[in-house]
Amino acid sequence: MTMKDLPLDERLEDIEPSEKGAVHHEEIINSFSPEERKKLIRRIDIRLVITLGCLYCVSLLDRTNLGAASVAGMQIELDMNQANNGYSITSLVFFITYTIFQIPATVIIRKVGPRIFLSGIVILWGAVMLAFGFVPNWETMAGLRIILGALEAGLYPGSVYLLSTWYPRYELQKRNAAFYLIGSVASGFGGILAYGLMQMDGLAGRAGWRWIFIIEGLLTCALGIGSYVFLVDFPEKAPRSWKFLNENEASFVIAQIEQDRADAAVEPFSLRRYLGNSKDSKVWAYASLYMLTTTNSYSIAYFLPIILEKSMHFSVAKAQCLVAPPYVFAGIVMYTQAMFGDKYHLRGPIVAGNALMGILGLGLLGYLENPAPRYFGVFLATAAANANCPALVSWQSNNIRGQWKRAFTSATLIGGGSIGGIIGTTVFRAQDAPNYQPGLLCTMLANALVVVIVCLMTLKFHRANKRVDAGGKPIEGQVGFKYTY
């Protein structure tokens, strides 16, 4: 009996980072022809990457549509002003619970399973979005944003972790980029969608900005229900996940992961070991990089429509619609970099290059008067911040081994991103309108720090790889494993 003939559970028991195990993995992989592999991977991409991308799209729409609602009259009707800073507070409180619930979410998704967990939280936060359309004051909206943050906390780290369990290290950035691209580019058209929904102003006696939340909440609930059908569980559970893969196909996926980094098997959960992963300095370095990156991406998402209207003097209609083109450009840059990065095993130089592009873009936006070069700066800044998100997620996944450590670092990375959201929503203060110079300076500084940290991490990884080449201590406890930089 060959390895391919064994039931999947028995194959998982045999997974060990040994020479004998490597032969078995090679046997399973070679039992599939190149054409069969392509068809299988394409099927996984469609069910996993596209479904998660659509959920991430509504996630971004639902957390960042405050900017669109603001220019549609929300701030005036709910009495958000400089005295109470209602808009900044409502934007900020989301990230408090979003940060707190990151780490528990990655434990729950492993225990409950992605299909039930992810689809469940999407349906629940869709209901919260519906409630946004009926709030009587900004304080009530702020309270609902706290609940929204707790529910959305599980989607991004859960998705990042789920993707990392399905793909080898150097096939991952393309998938992370596609997942993020679907979400960010589609949400970039949220301004156009919001403008269309604003035209419902007066329908059923409700303001146009309220219809933005009501319709998008209904859309979120519908996608949450649909995701239960299309989402798949972790590879070892895939044969039992709506007959998505048969035993042989699931074993191929697991063999690829085991051959790549030898961590396909799930070790028993231990809270002490799980939290013990916090002792690894690179965990916090990646979280810091993501925090600095999302300081930029959230600032752009929340305040770009307002800057376009108040600082660059575009009409409300133009301000809503001009948000989309920079996100389309960001999607092109993001996926091109992902293809290049996976092919040449590059991560750090891409991240640092994007940060430098962000500094240039923000400089053009903040310190020129002509609207044309300022709007070009928006393209550069938006592309830099958004392209670095999948690049950093992939870089972190490349240099981490172990199922629970991967879950922990996914949570801390995205948790760092939520802190970046807190920074991004507080540095653009109402009293700094219309040019928001302090906020622009802060985001430029964040990009500069990204370059510094990337240089330090690259030096650290280069030295560690040299020690491995010289016969030193294995990296991440795996012989032959080397850092990607």
Automatic annotation (TrEMBL):
Give the keywords, sorted.
Answer: Membrane, Transmembrane, Transmembrane helix, Transport
The protein's topology relative to the membrane is: Multi-pass membrane protein
Q: Which Gene3D superfamilies match?
A: MFS general substrate transporter like domains (1.20.1250.20)
GO molecular function terms listed in the Swiss-Prot or TrEMBL record: transmembrane transporter activity
Q: Which GO terms describe its cellular component?
A: membrane
Location comes to: Membrane
Protein name stated in the entry: Major facilitator superfamily (MFS) profile domain-containing protein
Q: Which organism is it from?
A: Penicillium bovifimosum
